[in-house]
Automatic annotation (TrEMBL):
Belongs to the LysR transcriptional regulatory family. It comes from the Bacteria. PROSITE patterns: HTH_LYSR. InterPro entries: LysR_HTH_N, LysR_subst-bd, WH-like_DNA-bd_sf, WH_DNA-bd_sf. Keywords: Activator, DNA-binding, Transcription, Transcription regulation. GO terms for molecular function: DNA binding; DNA-binding transcription factor activity. Required for the induction the katG gene for catalase. Involved in the response to hydrogen peroxide. SUPFAM superfamilies: Periplasmic binding protein-like II, Winged helix' DNA-binding domain. Transmembrane segments: none annotated. Residues 20-77 form the HTH lysR-type domain. It comes from Mycobacterium ahvazicum. One of its GO terms (cellular component) is protein-DNA complex. Gene3D superfamilies: Periplasmic binding protein-like II (3.40.190.10), Winged helix-like DNA-binding domain superfamily/Winged helix DNA-binding domain (1.10.10.10). This is Probable hydrogen peroxide-inducible genes activator.
Length: 302
């Protein structure tokens, strides 16, 4: 049998503090400040009957009447004014504690290679302006695995995600371009048709690439596939003219390698970009980050 904890407040006797919860204090604080059950229920986004029950539970736990409901405006009793001073200090200290912890917290955002622009920059700025939490950018060869292993809170993933172990929130689609070595015969061509890509050896990033043999119906993909396990291996293999690659067009806006050339792709399907995170996550900061990411994606689309 648990031992009851007790609290003594001046002029109020001894009470079982286990019966007083944070929701009671917030409810009393709102009614006392606004002098109205109607306005307090709106501020707390609860119904008036629920608010009245919460206040009644608090008064029962304290053994005193805190609020005088007989007048036109709700007013505090003498006991209510005494308790209100304590409640204000408790809630103020709690808020300072929460802010202090949030300043030390961060959202770990995983990514395997170039982050989409300007979406990534807009999202980080939007989130950090609105929250006392920073975003830590973590480069990893397999961002999806990093989420599942708990190494990051959320990750930017490209291409189709078939794993049921994560929740996926679609953000937008990226156009594709071909990339080849500056020494390749393809480097002199003004464009390449998507249907002609399988005629060339294809360099594939099997960990996080968006294009591979799976991008075509069975039997219609490239005959020669050069497998790599991360972006650095992939880009160096293309630069060495071991084959061509297909990549989202964000790479065109970055100086990723002096030994490659980008070729426009005609008729290529776009590549989806999404956020992936564990479905069991109950992190309020993560939820706010996802909301900021979706808002930034919508803004970039306009």
């Amino acid at each position: 049998m648990p031992v009851a904890r007790h609290l003594c407040l001046s002029g109020m006797g001894v009470l079982d503090s286990g019966r007083v919860e944070l929701r009671h204090l917030r409810a009393f604080d709102a009614v006392a400040r606004l002098q109205s059950f109607t306005h307090a229920s709106e501020a707390l986004t609860i119904t008036q009957p629920a608010l009245s029950r919460t206040i009644q539970q608090l008064e029962d736990a304290l053994g005193v009447t805190l609020l005088d409901r007989s007048s036109r405006h709700v007013e505090m009793t003498d006991a209510g004014r005494t308790f209100f001073e304590h409640v204000e200090r408790v809630l103020s200290e709690l808020e300072r504690g929460v802010d202090a912890v949030r300043r030390q917290a961060s959202i770990r955002l995983g990514f395997s290679w170039l982050l989409p622009d300007p979406w990534a920059q807009d999202t980080v700025a939007r989130f950090e302006r609105a929250n006392a939490t920073t975003v830590s950018l973590i480069r990893t060869d397999d961002a999806l695995a990093a989420v599942q292993q708990g190494k990051v809170n959320v990750a930017v993933v490209r291409g189709q995600v078939t794993s049921t172990a994560v929740r996926v929130v679609h953000l937008f689609d990226e156009a594709r371009v071909a990339v080849c070595s500056v020494r390749s015969r393809l480097a002199q061509q003004p464009a390449l048709d998507w249907a002609d890509v399988p005629q060339w050896p294809l360099v594939v990033n099997v960990a996080s690439g968006t294009t591979g043999p799976w991008s075509w119906p069975a039997g219609q993909g490239p005959q020669t596939v050069v497998q790599t396990s991360n972006f650095d291996e992939w880009i160096e293999s293309v630069a060495a003219d071991r084959g061509i690659g297909v990549i989202p067009d964000v790479a065109v806006r970055r100086n990723v390698h002096p030994g490659v050339r980008f070729i426009p792709l005609r008729g290529a399907p776009q590549s989806p970009v999404a956020l992936a995170f564990l479905p069991r996550a109950r992190n309020a900061e993560l939820r706010r980050f996802v909301e900021a990411a979706v808002a930034s994606a919508a803004a970039c689309a306009t």
